Amino acid sequence: MCKLKRLMIIFYAMIAWVLITGCDQEAAQEAPLQMPFKENTWVRKETVTKSKDDFFSSTGKQIESLPVDASLAKQLKTISTPGASNEKDCIAQAAALDQRRTEVQKRGGLWHSFEKVAETKKYSDYGMQLDSQMNRLVFSLKYLCRAAKGMPLDGWARNIVAQVEENGKEKMREYNIEMGSAPADVDTWIAFAEMAIESKKRDISYEKIGESISRAGNMVALYEKLSLEKVDESSLQPFYKKASTLLSVINDSLKSDPNIALSVKEENFLAITDLEGEL
Length: 279
What we know:
single chain
């Protein structure tokens, strides 16, 4: 009799254990999924290339605009090295500038130069704009070397251009929409194709591009020099003036040099429409 009671106790205990563990698993399954903690990250949403007035107003403080040295600006715009004679030469010269620009930015760029000294921090936006606009200048020259005789096209781009040339833009538009492409996308492709077709007519001399590279070389040289300067109370104002002048000359070159301005226009279009691909 005692043996039977012990067996019944063991049996009921096992049933209770199964019920308890089953409830625990069901509760775990019904519990809401806990997503991993997402770390807050800082993303700069302001445009990098702001005007001085935009920057000064955004800080909430009236900061005096930095002066520009007209004499230095004139020196930076002079042609100091021979122009390129062909595409290979042009690409090599532009690549050399890009390497020098990269070395400066590996050290933190001019933004770091402004940030590392307490007195210059209030003008650190100048450093940020200098880094950004120097990138733009050098990248535009590299692109221009390959686009002197027309926009460089990858396989997809050549196909789009061929469709417009062979069938006209209206038939090309109808065909691609029928194939399922969004009308807005097709209109963008047509605009790109028209730009590429028009670019076939141009014949920019490598010598002229070489002159632009030479002037940019002066700017890169000052960019390098400023990044290595040790700024103290005695050198503060000269540093400010040289940095401000360099930024002014770069910005002017992006607009006043017709070949660089053309390159910027085409690169902006490619970047905005995500058409650059393998260009």
